[in-house]
Design goal:
Blueprint: E1 10-12, H1 14-32, E2 38-43, H2 47-55, E3 62-70, E4 81-85, E5 95-103, H3 107-117, E6 123-131, E7 144-148, E8 153-155, E9 171-174
Parallel strand pairs: 2-3, 2-5, 5-6, 6-7
Antiparallel strand pairs: 1-9, 3-4, 8-9
Helix pairs in contact: 1-2
The structure holds inosinic acid (IMP) and magnesium ion.
Magnesium ion binds next to loops.
Length: about 180
């Protein structure tokens, strides 16, 4: 039988997440009011965050999805980034807001934003649920961040470890001291 145990340590509770996401969504709604932004979910990790975020933005907006993957093992990303599922609408002249789960080395978002910038969006910004700034390997800074997190491997609220734990409502830590 497969072993499955919920990681014990809660880093950020569902209540704290809900409050912060609501606040971030309200702030983004003001930034993008009148601009009908194209809000893009970076699959799969941002799906849960994205669903909550857009429902907190009470302005006209459109949604799209994109998927990028960096080669590597379960817990570290290598240098190479590949767009595995492109945005299926044109972004030229649009105000594009990318919604990402977590920025770690920064490679995924740096590569993705550079590729999308070439298509001539009116603006391009990144909203990350979590930011592990201490791990940055390339020069990239998300425009909006809900939570700055320490150098720990976190799961839940959309984030996975080898495909599991995305459905946990709280943000939890796998293992501990690293
Ligand atoms: P980066 O290219 O190194 O910034 O990697 C970003 C991607 O790595 C994220 O979109 C996540 O899919 C994954 N990732 C990085 N750190 C974590 C973590 O602590 N938990 C779950 N996924 C992570
Ligand atoms: Mg991801």
């Amino acid at each position: 039988m497969m072993m499955y145990a919920t990681p014990e340590r809660v880093l950020i509770s569902r209540e704290e997440i809900a409050a912060k996401v609501k606040e971030t969504a309200a702030m983004l709604a003001e930034k993008y009011r009148g601009k009908k932004p194209l809000v893009v979910c970076v699959l799969n990790g941002a799906a849960v965050f994205f669903a909550d975020l857009i429902r907190g933005m009470d302005i006209p907006l459109e949604v799209a999805t994109v998927a990028a993957s960096s080669y590597g093992d379960a817990t570290t990303s290598s240098g190479e980034v590949r767009v595995t599922k492109d945005i299926d609408v044109g972004i030229k002249g649009r105000h594009v807001l990318l919604v990402e789960d977590i920025v770690d080395s920064g490679r995924t978002m740096k590569a993705l934003t550079e590729a999308l910038a070439e298509r001539g969006p009116a603006s391009l910004a990144v909203c990350a649920f979590a930011d592990k700034q201490s791990r940055r390997a390339v020069d990239f800074k998300p425009d909006y961040v809900c939570f700055e997190v320490p150098d720990l491997f976190i799961v839940g609220y959309g984030l996975d470890c080898a495909g599991l734990y995305r459905n946990l409502p709280d943000l939890r830590v796998i293992g501990d001291a690293k």
